[in-house]
C-alpha cells in the first residue's frame, strides 16, 4: 500500500505529492489513462490528460468508480497557444462510473476580430468519487 500526501498537478500534468505533510494510505493504479488513488474509506481520486480534437474528447478513468463519479475538473493546458487565444473546457454531460465527456473551444483575437474555434488542445483532468 502506498502512502498518500495531498496532491497538486505538476507542470507535466501528472500528480505531484506535497512534501512535509502527513500521509494517508492509498492504493495506486496507473495506466495509459492516468493515475487513480483509492483510500481506505472508499474515496477515489483520479488524474489524467486528454487532447480535444474538434472541441471534444472522452476520458476513460484509470479505474472505474464502483458507485459514482461525484466531480470532474477539466483544466485547459495553455502552453504553446498565441497570447491572444483564450481556451475553455467543460463537461458535456454528467460523468458516468467509467468516463467523462469534455467539450472545449478557443477564442482568438486577430487584428481586433474575434474568431471562435472548436478547439484542439490538451486538458488536464481531476475526478473524485467513490
Walk me through this protein's architecture.
By secondary structure, the protein is mainly beta. The protein has a single domain, classed as Immunoglobulin-like (Sandwich), CATH 2.60.40. It is 0% helix and 58% strand. It has no helices and twelve strands. The protein has strands at 2-4, 7-9, 15-17, 24-31, 34-38, 44-51, 56-60, 69-76, 85-91, 99-110, 113-117, 122-129. The strands form three sheets. It has a six-stranded antiparallel beta sheet with strand order 1-4-5-6-12-8, with no helix packed on it. Strands 7, 9, 10 and 11 form a four-stranded antiparallel beta sheet that branches. A hairpin with a 5-residue loop joins strand 2 (7-9) and strand 3. The mean pLDDT is 81.
Strand content: over 45%
The rounded distance between the terminal residues' Cα atoms is 18 Å
**Number of separate structural domains:** 1
Report the strand count: 12
Topology:
Blueprint: E1 2-4, E2 7-9, E3 15-17, E4 24-31, E5 34-38, E6 44-51, E7 56-60, E8 69-76, E9 85-91, E10 99-110, E11 113-117, E12 122-129
Antiparallel strand pairs: 1-4, 2-3, 4-5, 5-6, 6-12, 7-10, 8-12, 9-10, 10-11
How would you sum up this structure in a few lines?
By secondary structure, the protein is mainly beta. The chain has strands at 2-4, 7-9, 15-17, 24-31, 34-38, 44-51, 56-60, 69-76, 85-91, 99-110, 113-117, 122-129. This is Putative tail fiber protein gp53-like C-terminal domain-containing protein.
Amino acid at each position: 500500500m502506498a502512502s498518500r500526501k495531498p496532491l497538486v498537478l505538476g507542470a507535466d500534468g501528472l500528480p505531484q505529492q506535497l512534501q512535509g505533510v502527513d500521509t494517508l494510505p492509498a492504493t495506486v493504479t496507473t495506466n495509459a489513462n492516468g493515475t487513480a488513488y483509492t483510500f481506505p474509506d472508499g474515496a477515489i481520486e483520479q488524474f489524467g490528460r486528454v487532447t480535444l480534437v474538434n472541441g471534444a474528447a472522452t476520458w476513460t478513468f484509470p479505474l472505474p468508480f464502483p458507485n459514482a463519479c461525484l466531480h470532474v475538473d477539466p483544466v485547459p493546458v495553455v502552453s504553446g497557444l498565441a497570447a491572444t487565444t483564450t481556451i475553455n473546457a467543460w463537461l458535456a454531460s454528467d460523468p458516468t462510473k467509467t468516463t467523462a465527456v469534455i467539450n472545449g473551444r478557443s477564442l482568438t483575437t486577430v487584428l481586433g476580430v474575434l474568431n471562435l474555434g472548436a478547439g484542439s488542445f490538451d486538458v488536464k483532468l481531476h475526478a473524485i468519487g467513490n
